[in-house]
Amino acid sequence: MVQVETFAQFGVVFLLFALGLEFSLPKLRVVGPVAVLGGVLQIALFMFLCGLTAALCGAKLSEGVFVGTFLSMSSTAVVSKFLVEKGSTNALHGQVTIGTLILQDCAVGLLFALIPVLGGSSGIFGGMMSMGRLLLVLSIFITVAYMMTWSFIPRFLKLMIQLSSQTNELYQLAAVAFCLLLAWCSDYLGLSLELGSFLAGVMISTTDFAHHTLEQVEAIRNLFAALFLASIGMLIHFKFLWNHVDILLAAVILVIIVKSIVITAVIKSFGYSIRTAFIVGLSLAQIGEFAFVLLSRASHHHLIGGKMYLLLLGTTALSLVTTPLIFKLIPVVTQLGILMRWFPSESGVQNELPLQEKATMLDVYNRTL
């Protein structure tokens, strides 16, 4: 189990690295407001709704708030894999989805700092200090990466191309090493492996070597991605699943419905069409792999009990398993919505992006930064 999970980490790293290589920075800037402000609003809404539900049901408020942070996470690795397969990474809904996932990856470190506060092992002041330090580290890390993008990276890749003119092994090794180095640096600084590997891909995507790099790491990515997906199946506790199949299925259906509604409402509030908001809502309707780490940390701090731990673990694994089915249903549901006149036509969606660029929300976002 531990060995498979270790290989699965490589799968997540290379998936995010390849996604960064195919990413478009100009389009990310356009969806910046909904990715940053909308992503933060989603996390806050889930924390509030679950905290309120826990208080009304007589449970601990801290446990409810943790479940809210737990549910707010979506799977960057699984969703990005399906977006790449369907060629939707540069579509408007794909950019909004990826931008929101990146924000969630950035927020993981802050949520880690929040868990000891909720568990009672750390004071509020200590938690705020930890969050402030992580925000400072994140800002410095991104600034240094941005500076290296325009100074060091193009020269380094050009040198590797020249040295590996007859064979591609050296360039392939250099690309993998660069990805793992940034992932390790990000993890060492208290951020996430996913953030570092994605940033490594984005840095190379600004050069002329992005396509060549993607060709070199594609086979490695597919191998480790398969191990990552296999590890999700290994996390399912079948005896608990069999004994509580009714509760788990009800929990998964409830999670998908609630997450779809909340995320759709948040995206729609930023001026996007109901069709785009609905596709993003369904794409992010699962619970992400980061939830496993949050769950382990919460259990260590005695924030949740044993049965709740197994329930959340089973719900997360089943929600990830249902993600392929949801992605297959998205085109069917959207076509039905267009026929029933719930959603605008394709031409209306294509005209949506220029309107977003002109929206005043972009000014609000710049002032907030």
Automatic annotation (TrEMBL):
Transmembrane segments: 6-25, 34-59, 96-118, 124-149, 170-189, 223-241, 247-267, 274-296, 308-330
Coiled coil start-end: none
Locations listed in the record: Membrane; Plastid, Chloroplast envelope
Keywords: Antiport, Ion transport, Membrane, Signal, Transit peptide, Transmembrane, Transmembrane helix, Transport
Gene Ontology terms: cellular component: chloroplast envelope; membrane
Recorded topology in the membrane: Multi-pass membrane protein
GO molecular function, one term: potassium:proton antiporter activity
Keyword Repressor: no
Protein name, per record: Cation/H+ exchanger transmembrane domain-containing protein
Species this protein is from: Aegilops tauschii subsp. strangulata
Source species taxonomy: Eukaryota, Viridiplantae, Streptophyta, Embryophyta, Tracheophyta
